[in-house]
Amino acid sequence: MARTPRAGPLHLASIALDPEAGEPLHRQLYFALREAILEGRLRPAARLPSSRALAADLGVSRNTVLAAFEQLLAEGYIEGRVGAGSYVSQLLPEDALNARAAVVAGTGVSRPPPGPSRRGVRLAATVGSTIRPRAFAPGLPELAQFPFEEWARLLQRHWRAPPSRFLIGGDPAGHAPLRAALAAHLGAARAVRCAPEQVFVVSGAQQALDLATRVLLDPGDAVWVEDPGYPGLLGVLAAAGVTIVPVGVDGEGLMVAEGRTIGRRARMACVSPSHQFPLGVTMSLARRLELLDWAREADAFVLEDDYDSEYRYAGRPLAALQGLDADGRVLYVGTMSKVMFPGLRLGYMVVPPHLVDAFLAVRRATDTHPSTLAQPALAEFIEDGSLSAHIRRTRALYARRQELLLESAARHLDGRLHLAPSAAGMHLVGRLAEGVDDRALARRARHHEVEAPAMSGYYHGHAPSPGLLLGYAGVPDREIERAVERLAKAFADRIVD
Amino acid sequence: MARTPRAGPLHLASIALDPEAGEPLHRQLYFALREAILEGRLRPAARLPSSRALAADLGVSRNTVLAAFEQLLAEGYIEGRVGAGSYVSQLLPEDALNARAAVVAGTGVSRPPPGPSRRGVRLAATVGSTIRPRAFAPGLPELAQFPFEEWARLLQRHWRAPPSRFLIGGDPAGHAPLRAALAAHLGAARAVRCAPEQVFVVSGAQQALDLATRVLLDPGDAVWVEDPGYPGLLGVLAAAGVTIVPVGVDGEGLMVAEGRTIGRRARMACVSPSHQFPLGVTMSLARRLELLDWAREADAFVLEDDYDSEYRYAGRPLAALQGLDADGRVLYVGTMSKVMFPGLRLGYMVVPPHLVDAFLAVRRATDTHPSTLAQPALAEFIEDGSLSAHIRRTRALYARRQELLLESAARHLDGRLHLAPSAAGMHLVGRLAEGVDDRALARRARHHEVEAPAMSGYYHGHAPSPGLLLGYAGVPDREIERAVERLAKAFADRIVD
């Protein structure tokens, strides 16, 4: 029930107080009087009714009015001492009030508030459609089998009586024990050569690239990216104002010779040599050496995104490109999103020794330091072998799921989607017959509650052949066949989108 | 003890295996052969000794050699089947190997790896000296009295059996219940007008400004900053490629008239109206209206940094500038660093409704989403009143510490550092006599283990008068007087720096 005041000497008819609203009456009155002043209904120097009179007019207690007046007085809207009469402040800038009143009344130079800048519009447009977390969303790991009891216990243990360095967290590169644990892990597992001081804790590949572009590149510099490639890097590169040069990928990885032709003077190449995203190719040794050779000639950097190298099902994993770098040009990037869970947003970057100081300074200047919340628990999770154990368990699980996907696809999609086994990774690329519109097919799959992103969506230009990406790692065993059956319906659909 | 091989038909004399090293012998051999190939000591097509012969030469087991060969084979360094003879791969690009060998030997075009770009050098230079966490470091809250037992329990409870949305964490604006809790808190405490959808969880004021510059500004746009002001914003603005326009601050806050004279066409103003950093001024109502009036005329945005508004010791807090914004130009930024602990790196930004979609898209394109690790626990910490209780406790504590600082300073520094009480905040500004070199004094204070940053360090140009910043909030009561005594010694010192 709203009460409105009797008409009084001041035009307070617009003040409607609602005793049933969540907000206290004195706050409601404060806001109402403030608006009346800001919109010119109460002019500077105008006298307000006494608190007693206003309370009577509004049918509220005098204390309600006094509390509202006190706030208005504290904020400078009114002057005078309560009891001796209150006036609308004479110090308020009339021009600003008039302009505001005119805008509110619709008689002024009404100007819609500005929208995003040209950069903002361009960046907003780099996002593709979001992928829902269900079969066969690429990049989604198994979540149900993560040892959360242990993770929660580690968090509790580190936070119930934390040392003050966790609370201040001043190191822009991250928590020293975590950096040491990561350096040891990367040396043993990936033949990455680094001291703990070279390791930076970041939120993921995007923040790693963001930091790298800020430290190493100037606006207008050219950067090679793989075509097709990981779309998550494009927004960061666009934000950095650099020129993106898409370079094709063949069976040996990024085609360095093509890059030399179309963008010899690039300052950086972003590659995923262990397991190219999305094609799944491993960059050959010859190509790796060629890439490093180009980088030496061009005086350029190489950003190595080793996003899912932990998942290799046959043969030995190839050592990281970083370990082949003789002169400090390779930045190595990895993530915990795949081996733990994406919501954690925690990754790492290994920076050449001569650049560590510059990375520290730029990070301090632009992002202070990473949150300490996860870091001590994660250091222990790595050191005590829990992470390795989880990776071993999920590796066996994903190998089986890839087989289940291949079998189900052979049963239900044979002749329409050609899937080949892969020795690594968390997704497969399914090839479609020439001429099939993979984007339309992916949309139809969504109608059947299956994510199967079109390969075309990962290419900068025209895709050479249509295909679908099927992430299997996070799909429960029993769900794989059912999801493939739903996908088969998308092939059968005659729906025209 | 390192063993070296007998001289054999191949020049393997450089291979030194150390059975006492942490690394397995087969890994050591793999690395040694890899280097020999990469540096041209083993040429493409060269035949390797048989595994049996090499094992004998090196005094290791044949399995050690076989494991090393297997890895080299998997990675493409050697060819052939084990047993039938192994050869250095003929597919290795000779040019790249020769260039590398020349670099390693020091006979090639030796070129030091490139350093930071011009942008990187400029950004790295925006960092001032780091402030150590001890008396009287500004911005440091009381850490010992935070309810960590409860915080740790909340973390454990939310993570021991988390729902899958915590694990995926796909919302680029953050966890919905946290955004709702923040919107309710900001509406009640700061008269911020917002729906939960307008709230973005960020890592702090820097990430908020980073996102805002990316969405709203183009390179070359001008941005007003307060002079003196918070140096943490400068690196982000420099990274965005915008032009920084320092605008003076008087007793009513940012001098809008000066801004109109020197940078009328700016596209954004960054202000701290509740408690200007570092001067501690509250922006007057008249000045607030003037600022919004300018923004309307210039079609500009205002970023309101409300970094410590929770700490007000006298009078009512002024409502946020955001609540006065009639047409969607104000972005409101707050942080948990002061009311919880800095290592958390968690803050929030309230975005005008018409810009929410653009902020969502740009965040998704450049940073995916914030970590979910803290968010569910924090939402509950706010909802159950724990945060408010902690703020009330620390408010009383900080009020007392400010008094202790004033008393100690009167006793030990009288006539040399003039401190006036402040109704708000976590630090005081101490004024020095004209002509005192505050930077030199701050350096001398450091020799006595006291942080007291020079006011000059917060000005873009010449500081009108020298002073020191003294943060008192995080200094234990009993330590305040002792630290002031140490500071007094810095005044007495004759050390010439």
Structural commentary:
The structure is a homodimer of 497-residue chains. Chain A is an alpha/beta fold. Chain A has three domains: 1-114, Arc Repressor Mutant, subunit A (Orthogonal Bundle), CATH 1.10.10.10; 161-384, 3-Layer(aba) Sandwich (Aspartate Aminotransferase, domain 2), CATH 3.40.640; 389-492, Aspartate Aminotransferase, domain 1 (Alpha-Beta Complex), CATH 3.90.1150. The first copy, chain A, has 17 helices and 13 strands. Chain A has helices at 25-38, 51-58, 62-75, 94-105, 118-124, 148-159, 164-168, 176-190, 205-216, 232-239, 256-263, 285-298, 356-367, 375-383, 386-412, 438-447, 477-492, and strands at 78-79, 87-88, 199-202, 222-227, 243-250, 253-254, 268-271, 301-305, 330-335, 347-350, 417-419, 427-432, 467-471. In chain A, the strands form three sheets. In chain A, strands 3-10-9-8-7-4-5-6 form an eight-stranded mixed β-sheet, sandwiched between helices. In chain A, strands 11-12-13 form a three-stranded antiparallel β-sheet, covered by helices on one side. In chain A, helix 5 (118-124) runs antiparallel to helix 10 (232-239) and helix 16 packs across helix 17 (477-492). The radius of gyration of chain A is 31 Å and the shape is elongated. The interface between A and B is large, with 125 and 125 residues.
